[in-house]
Amino acid sequence: MPDTSMGPPRMMKIQGAHANAGSQRSRLLAVLLMAVAIAGCDKEKPAEQRAAPPVSVMTVAPGTIPVVLTFVAQTESSRQVEIVARVSGFLDKIAYQEGELVKEGQLLFQLDPRPFQAQIDGATGEVQAQQARLSTATANLNRVKPLAEMNAVSRADLDRAQGDYDASKAAVFAAEAKLKEARLNLGYTSIRSPVTGLASRASQRQGAFINSMSEMARLTYVAAIDPVWVTFSVSQNQMSRMRELVTSGQVVPPKDGNYEVELVMPDGSVYPERGRIDFADPSFSEDTGSFLVRAVIPNTRKELRPGMFVTANLKGATRPDAIVVPQLAVQQGPNGHLVYVIKQDGTAEVRPVVVGDYQGDKDIVIVTGLKAGDRVVTEGVLKVVPGKPVQITAASADAAAKAPPKPADAAKK
């Protein structure tokens, strides 16, 4: 017979297991329902609105601004003269301080004058001898002429006397020319500065023999530094671009092209004296494709020296009806430059623009894309979202409403 003693307990265990499984399913279903309910509540909760970012704006106001043309330039002496010995001789003296300023007519070198003084003495004696011969020939001619008129002497005697007189006169002239040459040579032994300027170092030392027919005849040079010349090159592209701007009326050049030249030194300081353009090369260089322009700059303070590299700013041209904004307001987009403009409803709009030249250190010219009255974001640009509202700061709004446009102020001054 089957054993039934274990039947009831086993059935109780099975029933208990089924009961526990049902309880777990109930708890799981309750958790799922709660999660669905929470998710439904989250979906129904509205998203938080982003606060409008504070920005500073400026109101666009066209005005006349100066146009400055900038070039890399180099200074040079307005008159640099090589000091060359004209006669040969021994160098007796170097009479100037090398590298210092010398005056026009100041003695620089002294050659030994004694051989040239001897030549003067010899030439003087020759002049006196020829003058004595001329006196004799003159007296002889004066005696023969009356006798020839009376036919007391032959015509040949008169011609001979006249010839002697003419030859003696020519000999005196030649002797006097040699005397003048000897005096000039003596004067050349004292070598003086032809200009006022800075004298370079002497290439020969005291006691050296100077041969005027060789390269050693070059003794030094003197460079005039007041005024100085400033030269720079203008390329074909720069010339064409400037011509287009002038033709279209975007730039108005100064009257008669009389630009004022301002120099900026290598340390960034502005040289106090201004100059004017006095020469422009009539043709372009075949090597560089540019032509040379030269300006004359007063140098009364002697601060400029030949060979310095400086920046030349050409002033005098103006740009009428120009729109200028801070450089920080202009952003670089994938398709070019852009700015943010605040519309009447207070939202931001992306505005593509075409930029021009820089104006000063912080501003830039907008060629196209903006018009008078546009409000451009100048600070807080990175926080602006296109199509979203912004909060204009009170100081920015007051400045935009009350302050006159900066370009117009600069033009009036």
Q: What would you say this structure looks like, in words?
A:
The chain has 413 residues and is an alpha+beta fold. Among the domains are: 54-63 and 321-412, conserved putative lor/sdh protein from methanococcus maripaludis s2 fold, CATH 2.40.420.20; 68-76 and 228-319, Beta Barrel (Elongation Factor Tu (Ef-tu), domain 3); 113-188, Helix Hairpins, CATH 1.10.287. 33% of the residues lie in helices and 34% in strands. It contains 6 helices and 19 strands. The chain has helices at 7-44, 114-149, 155-188, 236-247, 394-402, 406-412, and strands spanning 54-59, 63-84, 89-94, 101-102, 107-111, 190-192, 197-199, 209-210, 218-235, 260-264, 275-280, 290-297, 309-326, 331-333, 336-342, 348-359, 363-368, 375-379, 391-392. The strands form 2 sheets. A 6-stranded antiparallel β-barrel has the order 2-9-12-11-10-13. A 4-stranded antiparallel sheet has the order 6-5-3-8. Helix 2 packs antiparallel against helix 3. Mean pLDDT is 86; it is low at 1-19 and 402-413.
What is this structure's SSE topology?
Layout: H1 7-44, E1 54-59, E2 63-84, E3 89-94, E4 101-102, E5 107-111, H2 114-149, H3 155-188, E6 190-192, E7 197-199, E8 209-210, E9 218-235, H4 236-247, E10 260-264, E11 275-280, E12 290-297, E13 309-326, E14 331-333, E15 336-342, E16 348-359, E17 363-368, E18 375-379, E19 391-392, H5 394-402, H6 406-412
